[in-house]
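Reopening this ticket.

The earlier resolution said the output was attached, but the attachment link was broken on my side. Pasting everything inline this time so it's all in one place.
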Amino acid sequence: MSESRGFPAPGKLNLMLRVVGRRADGHHLLQTVFRFIDYGDTLRFRVREDGVIARVNDVAGIPADDDLALRAARLLKQASGTRLGADITLEKRLPLGGGLGGGSSDAATTLLALNHLWRTGLVRERLLALALELGADVPVFVFGENAFAEGIGERLTPLALPPAWYLVLTPPVAVPTARIFAHPELKRDSKPIKMQRFSVEQAGNDLEPIVCREYPEVARQLAWLRQAASAWVTGSGAGVFASFPTESAARRVWTQAPAGMRGFISQGLARHPLRDLAR
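Inline output:
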């Protein structure tokens, strides 16, 4: 058996999210801007010669059968034909149902890391196809750059974003994405915008009104953060965030948070830390 190696699985923020339509199969058509942040999960991998893929630690709220990292490892093994396996340790920091991309990022890091460790040699385009089988948010993490995404999230265009620091609040609720998208009052006809015209002033999230109505604690924390800065729900929630030009500006607001409010401060990344693991 090889030595265990750790790889980061960064979180993401949706700086903008519009629902612009719906496909015949029921999937929603989106426009969104993904921003990677320097706060996330860590996965550790130990290559096995016997072909077994196993998670070696318990993770609260994520049964092994539902673990996207395990599914990603098995999918890569099947696609590549490798005889190798892996022991996987998942160190969670990103909250479940927080709209921060935790499970999707874990899956992407697994594809990138095991493609490297197993020396399977799949190129990024092939990994992107596997990523889409695992979920609509997985491809952007394999893509490896902040991006303007369209379709169900699979049509990705690199997007240069200005440096920024973020205060992210993590209300103690888990929001099921499917419940928000299935809500009868969800706005599904936003006018599409051109990527070239996107600016941070166009921030907004079509899912936010539904999330805040269904989860009052999200609405409460969003309202508190909006007293200090422009703030939004990320993804389908429950996380809410505000952007600041400096770390000190973000920390000044965070020190004023009511007792019991949870969250973190993170810096926006220019690219995914594992971007160079695939060609």
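Reporter confirms the inline version is readable. The radius of gyration is 19 Å. Residues 102-117 form the longest helix (16 residues).
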